[in-house]
Amino acid sequence: MTVLEEMIGGIRPLDQGAMAEARSHQDRLTKPRGSLGVLEDVAVRLAGMAGACPPPLPAPAALAIFAGDHGVHARGVTPWPQEVTAQMVANFAAGGAVANAFANQVGASVTVVDVGVAADLPSAPGLLSRKVAYGTADLSQGPAMTLEQAAQALATGREIARDLVAAGHRCLITGDMGIANTTASAALIAAFTGEDPARVTGRGTGIDDATHRHKIDVVRQALEVNGLGAGAVPEGPEAALRALAAVGGLEHAAIAGFILGGAAARVPVILDGVIAGAAALAAAGLAPRAIDYCLAGHRSAEPGHATALAALGLRPLVDLELRLGEGTGGLLAHPLVCAAARVMHEVATFDSAGVSEKNS
Ligand SMILES: Cc1cc2ncn([C@H]3O[C@H](COP(=O)(O)O)[C@@H](O)[C@H]3O)c2cc1C
Ligand SMILES: O=C(O)c1cccnc1
């Protein structure tokens, strides 16, 4: 077995029996059929993932924030200096970022993983050093990563997922930090969906019209120089790995691996925003079944995110015009996913509660 096959293997299809049982259980609960809307689908998916009805409560949750820098930063696609990536890693480790506040709110643990920050970072509690490179190369000039670097970051993400589940977590949440990573995200989304860069490239942390036009041009150049300009990436893991390495970031590769790891462990993975959406497209190219274990935490204001979610067939749980990343939107969705599962454990049936069913 090749390293790639090993990494993408071991993901079981959703358990159709447990899903059928979950659907019929939902229909016996003391509520009109279908009245919990999308949350009923979430509960059924959770049963399919775990192979059990009722599904286990998806708690405690673990947020993993993968951090990396981007050679394309040199092209002026973001107003923020590159060193903010390293500074925010220190901020996460100190507990001072929005992701930390939201994690505290929902009771999630926070693990920060340096997979590609372009600086040596002082060690800190909760910070794992898994540096693959000091940032990527400029994706508008050639491949951002070698295939080996992309594979190493994938393996790292997968391992972190496995370790977090082994430590008792029952839900994984994706997080990212990497100045300029909305440019790499747009390039990945355009590559995997075949969409025009102008439709999927957003303003990231906030740029003016002229910089936005320039950012779209940079994404176009990235696709052309890497041979990804003509339609969507073909199916199959080799093509997916090549595209991920060509225009992705080290944190995208690690998040894709994290998704594969969560799926292999049969644990739900709540995706955050546009960076996670782009990484999930790569994970889907590597192992389509992995997406069965993903829930879209929210829909970000970045235009490419909706494109990615549509291609993945995922419906976002929260839509608050967030455009931060870090895992913030994924964290906010966690209580909703828990509520969907809790209904299956705690709500009485018409029989058990002696409630009359509807007449016709
Ligand atoms: C202080 C600060 C905190 C952040 N937390 C997440 N991001 C988000 O913004 C960055 C991507 O946007 P762009 O492509 O426009 O650079 C990523 O680091 C992402 O995680 C942040 C950005 C900043 C500046
Ligand atoms: O959609 C996101 O997650 C996002 C948007 C802008 C900047 N960083 C992240």
TrEMBL record:
Segments forming a coiled coil: none
Catalytic activity: 5,6-dimethylbenzimidazole + nicotinate beta-D-ribonucleotide = alpha-ribazole 5'-phosphate + nicotinate + H(+)
EC number of this enzyme: 2.4.2.21
Keywords noted in UniProt: Cobalamin biosynthesis, Glycosyltransferase, Transferase
GO molecular function ontology, one term from the record: nicotinate-nucleotide-dimethylbenzimidazole phosphoribosyltransferase activity
Top-rank EC class of the record's enzyme: transferase
Pathway membership: Nucleoside biosynthesis; alpha-ribazole biosynthesis; alpha-ribazole from 5,6-dimethylbenzimidazole: step 1/2
InterPro entries registered for this protein in UniProt: Nict_dMeBzImd_PRibTrfase, Nict_dMeBzImd_PRibTrfase_bact, Nict_dMeBzImd_PRibTrfase_N, Nict_dMeBzImd_PRibTrfase_sf
Active site: E326 (proton acceptor)
Gene Ontology annotations of biological process type: cobalamin biosynthetic process
One Pfam family of this chain: DBI_PRT
Family (UniProt): Belongs to the CobT family.
HAMAP family: CobT
Function summary: Catalyzes the synthesis of alpha-ribazole-5'-phosphate from nicotinate mononucleotide (NAMN) and 5,6-dimethylbenzimidazole (DMB).
Alphabetized NCBIfam families for the sequence: cobT_DBIPRT (TIGR03160), PRK00105.1 (NF000996)
Designated name of the protein: Nicotinate-nucleotide--dimethylbenzimidazole phosphoribosyltransferase
Species whose genome carries this gene: Thermobispora bispora (strain ATCC 19993 / DSM 43833 / CBS 139.67 / JCM 10125 / KCTC 9307 / NBRC 14880 / R51)
